[in-house]
Write a structure and sequence with these properties.
The protein has about 110 residues and is α+β, with helices and mostly antiparallel strands. The chain has one domain. The chain contains four helices and four strands, in the order ββαββααα. It has a four-stranded antiparallel β-sheet. The longest helix has 18 residues. The radius of gyration is 14 Å and the shape is elongated.
Length: about 110
């Protein structure tokens, strides 16, 4: 079904917008809200654009981009913030990976646990 990376959600400090992929509309509203809060706070804190993407194996990747002329973008802060989110939101991120593998990659749940 999916061959390359799939964007789960993204937030932009430049456009002041949050996006969640329509393919994930079946996620519980609370999860969608938590993703929105997490991503928007990230971009408000360090700037740039944050996207959460699944790779072809179902791993969730944090991808950060910034405009070339954005001198306010905090590159070091973004790395530290990602590590913090990976630690504090580990349960949520693991659950999202499991969800993606089961419902999008059609993997067997018992094989994943």
């Amino acid at each position: 079904m999916y061959q390359d990376k799939v964007v789960l959600c993204a937030s932009s400090a430049y456009e002041k917008k949050f996006y969640i992929n329509e393919d994930f509309k079946a996620l519980p509203e609370q999860i969608k809200q938590e993703l929105q809060i997490m991503c928007v706070l990230f971009t408000e804190d360090v700037g740039g654009i944050l996207s959460l993407e699944f790779d072809e194996e179902g791993a969730l990747i944090f991808r950060v981009n910034s405009d070339e002329n954005d001198y306010l973008f905090d590159e070091i802060g973004s790395v530290l913030k990602i590590k913090e989110l990976q630690r504090t939101k580990a349960e949520l991120l693991e659950a999202l990976e499991l969800y993606y593998k089961v419902f999008f990659l059609n993997e067997n749940v018992s094989d994943l646990l």
